[in-house]
């Protein structure tokens, strides 16, 4: 097993750690351990808050006026639980491996003359997904679910810091773990020399998904939703673009208007039979993902963060299809030391988050 080391000089304060344990499952030996500092996006605090919050709250004026428990308005178990660890790799449109200096991930540092990871912005880069996700095709390229969660203790002063020697253990480090087995992510059915070089990894939240099968699709597409569960769950909601930042759901979607809420990210595609999550017709948009900045419950109109336009800057007008994007990237990391996958070893991926 080998990995490619790239230097990195960043002046950030980190809030966790990403760890890869490369081991031989036959001999139960650890071959290598690679650690990368971890940056957690600010909105992850909101996600944790949604997990902490109960589904029902007390309304003093509900019921007969004496108070009752009512819906809190948060879909706690749907979007906001980190359930997946997603992987991206350096390969081109022809599925050929790209060298470790792939410009999508690394840039040349003129000072040291070496390649360093690019800086990810605080926004929802790449439509809120990965730069170059490995397509899902289970079982060889599976959607990796979090397979183990546990806490680790840290030790802090029990009394006055620096004055008293006694310390106490606090379970304030949560670890989410999954394992890449020997026969997973080994490439697109090519020779071992062409196996994936994993260059990015993300901790993601989304609904619970079972076996996906060989869909050969971007994992992001699996979390696009519209109608309630049923035969039409993968069909885009019908809507109309107005040439402004406001789009309106079709009256026929009355039962589904609250599938999309204020604060959600949506994907705009072509309307009609082609308006599915993998529709090739994206209406000429450079980026089909938008943020809903205003929408009332029960309302059909939604205000987006920008006007939907084509690559030529022409505003969209007329029928469109809309998906609610249920994927939430909890944390996204470009690896300082890209991992070359092997059929000989398995890789345990652990994501540590410091909660306080």
Short characterization:
The chain is mostly beta strands. The chain has one helix and 19 strands.
Give keywords.
356 residues; mainly beta; Elongation Factor Tu (Ef-tu), domain 3; 2 domains; 6-stranded antiparallel barrel; 5-stranded antiparallel β-sheet; 1 helix; 3% helix; globular; disordered N terminus
Explain what you see.
- With 356 residues, the chain is mainly β.
- It folds into two domains: 16-51 and 76-206 and 329-354, no CATH class; 230-325, Elongation Factor Tu (Ef-tu), domain 3, CATH 2.40.30.
- The protein has one helix and 19 strands.
- It has one helix at 44-52; strands at 16-24, 29-37, 56-59, 68-71, 82-89, 106-109, 114-117, 148-157, 167-180, 197-205, 224-225, 237-242, 246-249, 265-269, 289-294, 301-304, 317-325, 328-340, 346-354.
- The strands form five sheets. A six-stranded antiparallel barrel has the order 12-13-16-15-14-17.
- A hairpin with a 6-residue loop joins strand 15 and strand 16.
- It is globular and about 60 Å long.
- Residues 1-14 and 274-280 have low confidence and may be disordered.
Strand order of the largest sheet: 12-13-16-15-14-17
N- and C-termini, Cα separation: 35 Å
The biggest beta sheet, please?
Answer: 6 strands, antiparallel, barrel
How many β-strand stretches?
Answer: 19
In one word, what is the shape?
globular
Topology as a string of helices (H) and strands (E): EEHEEEEEEEEEEEEEEEEE
SSE layout and pairing:
Blueprint: E1 16-24, E2 29-37, H1 44-52, E3 56-59, E4 68-71, E5 82-89, E6 106-109, E7 114-117, E8 148-157, E9 167-180, E10 197-205, E11 224-225, E12 237-242, E13 246-249, E14 265-269, E15 289-294, E16 301-304, E17 317-325, E18 328-340, E19 346-354
Antiparallel strand pairs: 1-2, 1-19, 3-4, 5-10, 6-7, 8-9, 9-19, 10-18, 11-17, 12-13, 12-17, 13-16, 14-15, 14-17, 15-16
């Amino acid at each position: 097993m080998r990995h490619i080391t790239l230097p990195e000089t960043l002046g950030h304060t980190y809030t966790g750690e990403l760890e890869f344990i490369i081991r031989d499952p036959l001999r139960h030996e650890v071959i290598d351990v690679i650690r990368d500092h971890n940056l957690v996006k600010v909105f992850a605090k909101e996600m944790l808050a949604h997990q902490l919050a109960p589904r029902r709250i007390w309304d003093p004026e509900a019921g007969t006026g004496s108070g009752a428990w009512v819906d809190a308005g948060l879909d706690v178990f749907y979007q906001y639980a980190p359930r997946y660890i997603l992987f991206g790799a350096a390969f081109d449109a022809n599925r050929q491996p790209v060298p470790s200096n792939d410009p999508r991930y690394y840039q040349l540092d003129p000072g040291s003359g070496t390649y360093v990871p690019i800086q990810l912005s605080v926004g929802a880069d790449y439509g809120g997904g990965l730069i170059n996700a490995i397509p899902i095709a289970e079982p060889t390229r599976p959607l990796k679910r979090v397979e183990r969660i546990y806490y680790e203790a840290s030790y802090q002063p029990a009394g006055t810091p620096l004055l008293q020697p006694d310390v106490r253990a606090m379970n304030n480090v949560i670890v989410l773990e999954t394992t890449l087995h020997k026969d997973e992510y080994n490439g697109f059915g090519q020779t071992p020399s062409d196996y994936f070089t994993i260059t990015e990894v993300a901790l993601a939240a989304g609904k619970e998904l079972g076996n996906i099968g060989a869909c050969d699709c971007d994992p992001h597409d699996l979390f696009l939703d519209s109608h309630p569960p049923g035969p039409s769950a993968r069909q885009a909601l019908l809507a109309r673009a107005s040439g402004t930042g406001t789009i309106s759901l079709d009256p026929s979607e009355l039962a589904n208007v609250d599938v999309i809420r204020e604060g959600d990210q949506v994907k705009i595609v072509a309307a009609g039979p082609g308006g599915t999550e993998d529709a090739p017709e994206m209406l000429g948009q450079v980026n089909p993902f938008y943020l809903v900045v205003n929408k009332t419950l029960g309302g059909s109109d939604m205000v987006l963060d920008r006007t939907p336009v084509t690559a030529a800057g022409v505003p969209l007008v007329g029928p469109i299809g809309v998906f609610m994007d249920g994927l939430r990237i909890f944390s996204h990391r470009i690896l300082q030391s890209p991992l070359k996958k092997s059929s000989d070893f398995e890789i345990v991926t652990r994501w540590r988050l410091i909660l306080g």
